[in-house]
Structures are given as structure tokens and as C-alpha cells.
Design goal:
Elements: E1 22-24, E2 27-28, E3 32-37, H1 43-54, E4 69-73, H2 78-92, H3 96-101, E5 106-110, E6 118-119, H4 128-140, E7 144-148, E8 154-155, H5 162-179, E9 182-188, H6 210-214, E10 217-223, E11 229-237, E12 244-249, E13 255-257
Parallel strand pairs: 3-9, 3-10, 4-5, 4-7, 6-8, 7-9
Antiparallel strand pairs: 1-2, 10-11, 11-12, 12-13
Length: 267
């Protein structure tokens, strides 16, 4: 087995680099990102807004073009997710003809079993759960894969251990690189970040600091001052300028981007 198959030398300075393909603004293919939020913030509704924007059915500040998306729920039942989708149907006045007019689609799948995508001490090639997900991504050529939630995706690794969490992210990074897709992992904030008006920084994520260190893209969600919506902002971004955007709660919690407010760049 060869561990170093590619290289650069001095003449590569003359080559024009290939255009970087980003699924979300700031998250290229082949990379892993985190979306962190306290419980009951609206993370699930925000993700559905993101998915619908990928199909050109609503607006999200992270979506600049249609993106073929797979949402893997390890926490919520499909019935619960469908209820949230119906809330968007009402909030956005989506009709049968609206859906027929767009050629884009998404897929949402669930697995609430005790099996895990990543198991410590088990080669991922021998993990049928991981391999089934890999085959699905490969077959359908998904560009963006959302895993909900990180804590339900692995077993045997210690959340507060830097080496363990770096290894978990390495497995997801290998999956992203193999399929040339982006992977967004949903995660919870630490307890100190749950307090309203807490500073949003790279220590916001629960568990080992290597989670944020090894992710190339980290977003946070927080409630706005009056709990009438949420604020989505960049915590870490290696490939684009940081962003911040407000979303208002509509029908039964559906989130609508505030169109009258320009996207803000975090200082």
C-alpha cells in the first residue's frame, strides 16, 4: 500500500488551480463541516430550510445553486420530519405545481437502531452500516450529505477525547473524499454556550476541541433576542468569508430567511 500517491513540486506554482466546488457557501466537496446548536433552537427546521433551498424552493444564505442532498436522520422518525416539511408547505405556500416545476429533489432516510456508522476497533470496510451509506452516496452521486446527529453516528469513542474525535472526523472525511461530496454533521453546543448572549467562538461545540480543529467549516445556531427566530453564523470557515444571517419563525416553527436584511459578514 502506498501512503503518498500525490505530490507537488516547484513547477506546480505555474498551474492555474481548478475552480473549487462548494455545496454550501464555505464548504467544498471532499470536506466535513459542523452545525452546532443548543437543543430546542430550531436546528431541525433550519436543516429542512437548507434542503428546500437546495431544491430552489426557498432561500438560504448558504445556498448559491441547486445541490443534490441526502439527509440521514439517526435521531428523528420520518413521520416527525414529514410534519416539519408540511409546516414549510404551509409557510411557503408550496403546491403540487410548484414541485412539478422544479427538477431538483432530495432524499431523507432514517435509522434509529443501535447500530452505528463508525465503531471503534472495527475496520470501516467491515462495517455494513457505513458501507451501505457509502454505496448509496456513490450510486446516487449526492453532493451534500447531512448526518443528524454526530453523537448517534459512532460508538466506542469518547466525546471528550481529542484523539478519538479526530479519528471519528477522519472517517467522515474519508467518506467525503471518496465520494467527492460535502458532509455536514449536526452537533450540540457545550453547556456554557447555551446561555443567551454567550460569545460565539470556536469553543462552542460540545466535547473535544479536536472536533472544531479538524472540521474546516463550523456554523452555529442561536435564538434571537425575543425568540422569534434564529441567527446562523460562521464560527470557523477556511474557504470563504464568515457570514451571519437571521431567520424568522413562521408556521409551526418553519424558518424563513429575512429577505429585508442583507447577509452580514462577521467582523
Amino acid at each position: 500500500m502506498q501512503y503518498f500517491n500525490n505530490q507537488l513540486n516547484k513547477f506546480d506554482i505555474l498551474k492555474k488551480p481548478q475552480e473549487q466546488h462548494q455545496t454550501l457557501k464555505g464548504l467544498p466537496t471532499g470536506e466535513v463541516g459542523l452545525l452546532v446548536a443548543p437543543g430546542a433552537t430550531g436546528k431541525s427546521y433550519f436543516v429542512l430550510n437548507l434542503i428546500l433551498a437546495c431544491c430552489d424552493l426557498t432561500s438560504n444564505h448558504l445556498i448559491e445553486r441547486p445541490v443534490k442532498t441526502l439527509y440521514v436522520s439517526l435521531e428523528d422518525r420520518l413521520e416527525d420530519i414529514q410534519r416539519r416539511l408540511y409546516a414549510y408547505k404551509k409557510a411557503l405556500n408550496i403546491s403540487q405545481s410548484t414541485l412539478e416545476e422544479t427538477i431538483f429533489d432530495f432524499k431523507i432516510i432514517e435509522n434509529k437502531s443501535t447500530e452505528r456508522l463508525i465503531v471503534k476497533g472495527v475496520n470501516q470496510k467491515d462495517n455494513p452500516f457505513f458501507q451501505e451509506l457509502n454505496r448509496l452516496i456513490e450510486k446516487e452521486t449526492y453532493e451534500l450529505v447531512i448526518i443528524d446527529t454526530l453523537i448517534k453516528s459512532y460508538t466506542g469513542y469518547e466525546e471528550n477525547n481529542n484523539a478519538d474525535m479526530a479519528m471519528v472526523l477522519s472517517h467522515f472525511n474519508a467518506l467525503a473524499m471518496h465520494n467527492d461530496c460535502s458532509i455536514l454533521l449536526l452537533h450540540h453546543t457545550n453547556k456554557g454556550a447555551i446561555a443567551q448572549n454567550a460569545d460565539i467562538n470556536q469553543s462552542i461545540s460540545r466535547g473535544a476541541s479536536s472536533l472544531v480543529d479538524n472540521a474546516r467549516f463550523v456554523l452555529s445556531l442561536s435564538k434571537n433576542e425575543y425568540d422569534t427566530g434564529i441567527i446562523c453564523q460562521s464560527v470557523k470557515t477556511n474557504f470563504s468569508a464568515p457570514t451571519k444571517c437571521n431567520y424568522t419563525r413562521a408556521y409551526k416553527g418553519a424558518l424563513i430567511r429575512e429577505e429585508n436584511e442583507d447577509e452580514l459578514v462577521v467582523a
